[in-house]
Amino acid sequence: MRLHVGCAMWTHKSWQGRFLAHPLPGGERLRAYAGWCTAVEGNTTFYATPAGETVASWARQTNPEFRFVLKLPKVVTHERRLTGADEELRVFLNAIEPLGPRAHALWIQLPGSFGPADVPALARFLRGLPTSHRYAVEVRHPAFFSDPQAVRMLEETLVTVGAEWIPFDTTAFFRTPPTSDAEREAWTRKPRTPPRTRALTDRPIVRYLGRDDPARTVEGWQPWLDVVTGWLREGRSPTVFVHTPDNADAPDLARRFHGEVRARLPEVVPLPEPAPVGPSTLF
What we know:
The protein is α/β, with parallel strands linked by helices and 283 residues long. It has a single domain (4-264), classed as Protein of unknown function UPF0759 (TIM Barrel, Alpha-Beta Barrel). The chain has helices at 29-33, 52-60, 74-79, 86-95, 119-127, 143-146, 148-161, 181-189, 214-220, 222-233, 250-264, and strands at residues 4-7, 39-42, 67-71, 103-109, 135-138, 164-165, 168-169, 205-209, 239-243. It has a nine-stranded parallel beta sheet. Helix 1 (29-33) links the parallel strand 1 and strand 2 (39-42). Helix 5 runs parallel beside helix 7 and helix 10 packs across helix 11 (250-264). Residues 177-198 are annotated as: Disordered. It comes from Micromonospora deserti.
């Protein structure tokens, strides 16, 4: 049984000297992060397609079981809304080739304005994608969480091509008002999306947003322990990404989630042991 866990990034200023050695060359940070977590969100690919050598470096720093969930470029999903972006998509797919099996899923995050009327465009886009990759879709339009017909239409579209539906659970975050600058910023930017616990494939992906207080983050993810444990017992292999507004403790929290699941299911493959982190130094 394999449960992969990870964060929204593999390097963060607040992790230096705590989770990652400091100083550490940029080309070694992903390797150090991969000692803590076994997956990472590829948010940077939304803004720019990386150079081939950059992607090759990512592959060298991780083993083949490590999972990248890479976001499609915004020109494809938000600017062109899945239509007329064949060249941009081709360049992106060519760029990520060095990852091989590490490219666990290509993440199609759609804007909040992309609603039920746009599902036919999504269906055409998915049918045109190469079958050599897995795909996962994240939607934010309210109808996909409240209208049974819209839910059914989207599910049928995804199931037809073997794509997953990524939930972004922000309910724990929005339960009470923000108490820090990072939480106040996230309060204005993050979508208010409810949890969705139905998996469509054998590789479900969850994005969970907690609070800057680790105890409240852990409290908020308790329902997901039952869901993820159930998926594992069904033979699925989930990936869970743990976010907090400041992400200061995200690697430790991701490992803690994995540990709480493994306490229920000891058969789950353990996480790697992180490399020792020495004291911070100026030299």
